[in-house]
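Per your request, structure below.
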């Protein structure tokens, strides 16, 4: 299951962000996953329950947002949302398209608990903060 290694890399990035903001703990982690990313959301959630055990993330929760598959047609220049297995322009039916989104896995948001002062948030009393 490669989702476990993906999840471990994600949590390494989250922990680095938490340390940079002097956080005591990580709350909610939101990721955006496209259907063409090669990451299965259900398997990522299962892997998260195992991988989150560690410094700063042992009580973190994972929220997954599903990203749509969007294309731009090279022939008519239209952008449209399509099904993952049907990459055809919905305006002119052309197969000459470029993928705009749907193949990504992005760390969209991290909620930090007890975040201390940083360059972006001068108020040390601010809890929770979103990165």
């Amino acid at each position: 299951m490669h989702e476990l290694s993906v999840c471990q890399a994600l949590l390494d990035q989250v922990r680095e962000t938490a340390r940079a903001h002097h956080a005591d703990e990580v709350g909610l982690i939101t990721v955006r996953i496209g259907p063409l990313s090669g990451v299965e959301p259900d398997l990522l959630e299962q892997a998260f329950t195992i991988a989150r055990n560690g410094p700063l993330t042992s009580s973190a929760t994972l929220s997954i947002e599903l990203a749509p598959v969007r294309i731009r047609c090279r022939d008519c220049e239209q952008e449209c949302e399509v099904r993952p297995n049907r990459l055809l322009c919905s305006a002119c039916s052309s197969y000459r398209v470029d993928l705009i989104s749907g193949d990504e896995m992005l760390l969209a948001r991290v909620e930090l608990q007890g975040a201390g002062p940083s360059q972006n948030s001068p108020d040390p009393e601010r809890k929770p903060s979103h990165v």
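Strands lie at 25-33, 61-66, 69-73, 79-82, 97-101, 105-113, 129-130.

Regards,
D.
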